[in-house]
Sequence to fold (539 residues):
Amino acid sequence: MNTPVPMMEIELNAWLLYSHLRTVFADTEVVSQGIDGTRHWTTYGEVDRRAHQLMHALDSLGLDRGVPVATLAWNGYRHLEAYIGIPCSERIMHTLNVRLSPEDLAFIIGHARDRAILFETDLLPVLEQVHALGGLVGVEHLVVLDATVPDTTLPGVVAYEDLIHDEPTTYPSRAIDELTPMGMCYTSGTTGRPKGAVYTHRSTYLHASAVASPAAMNIGPTDTIFPVVPMFHASAWGMVHAGAASGAKQVFLAGSATPAALASLLHDERVTVTAGVPTVWHGLADELASLGGRPPDLRAIICGGAQPPRVLIERYHRDFDIPVVQAWGMTESSPLASIAWPKAAYRDWDEGHLVDQVRTRAGLPLPGMNMRIQDDEGADVPWDGVSMGNLLIRGPWVINSYLYGEGADSFTEDGWFRTGDVAIGFPDGYFTIADRTKDLIKSGGEWISSVDMEAAIMSMPGVIEAAVIAIPDPRWDERPLACVVPASDFVISIEVVRDHLLANGFSKWQLPDRLELIDEVPRTSVGKYDKKVLRARFV
Ligand code: ADP
Fold:
């Protein structure tokens, strides 16, 4: 007989995370609205059986243990099956961001050494472009998440339903070491290429437990959760893991979240908790107003990825009596690290006071997550509500390093991670994000590298210098503004700049909407671009 593992040493792995799906929560519903608007209903029990079939299928394909298997997919039940099947069969779940350009995807797939890709039918054209760029060289298997294979120039594509159909619905459980990789997600680099953030089984388990707890999203078997945040972006903020582990009914929406689709799912499925970037909630508010009511059971909108504007928070409170609860995190922190719930002592505060002191802040650190704010010399600054500094974090679901040890300068010698955000701490433990030292623009929840865009614009004939800054935008949170120094005799227009960027690997949504012609780019004392000056001039 094998000696049992001492109870307190049971591995915190994907098997433990998903252990109740087929038993305790077998009847709990999973609702997915597809890209064509049709709804599909299933249960955790069925999802689990199919995930086990997927595990057998991955074995049949001959994929080694420990290799990355990627998904290029929207939110939906098949993606959930991949969330379970890939790590439980001891492979690494690598979510590819469908909003990236084919050039970036080609780089990431090669860099991660993905051996198989599970992709959505409507994303086939993207993958064909990746293939045309030579980006699928190391990929041995292409699986379309569908019942049939569409017409395609890609070689050897198999249909997911055919792949799993004849496989057994039970897979023998595996004693996976909790410190081995479970998932992977790339994050945009300020300069150069995206970097891989790798999560272990243990970090994913601990993050999911924290996300489910009342200190964070407070989700369990009485809930219906609707992660509007994509499963391809930082594991839908851990909500999918947390919901599956704690038995919450889950609702998924494929494609872009239109206000009409959001409103009908929130109403029909009686969603209690939802989460997404501020951009999503702007559009929904008008839709709810025109429908004349709030979703009946919705008790919180978790809003992160960018600071939700005060008017948005106030509107949801005033018109719908729904709290917009700000959260902060990063791909590198799995991502959830803080959330802005009011403390018990603030119970009698009026809403105006709560908005000022709690809701417009990035929150309180989650249990297990430590934060400090430092000046440029590395000295801690006081949490006095005034002093500003670089935010550093440390905790069991912050990555140890980027893939292959890249980006080592983001980690301090004494074990902290430099977030690239500038924060102000308050004496009661809340903090707020005041600025960003990383040179990136965040539009609708996704990144645009200003440095890459500047380099591309400066490669245009007639451009001497270019600086790209983020300007606030009511709908997308931020949009890029291109400031260009033209050579005399050259006429540079926004159309020419946009066409040039499109031809150089930028996606349409990333293109600047505005151009300012300037005489020179202002510089700091050490010769760096002084974007503060440009922001003051143009924002
Ligand atoms: P996610 O979009 O899931 O938060 P990313 O890694 O794409 O993860 O982005 C993380 C960055 O987004 C943070 O470092 C910060 O710059 C910004 N961010 C996230 N949440 C907030 C927030 N509540 N307020 C301000 N900025 C935020």
The radius of gyration is 23 Å. Residues 187, 233-234, 237, 304-307, 326, 328-331, 335, 362, 419-421, 433, 436, 442, 445 surround adenosine-5'-diphosphate (CB under 6 Å). The mean pLDDT is 95.
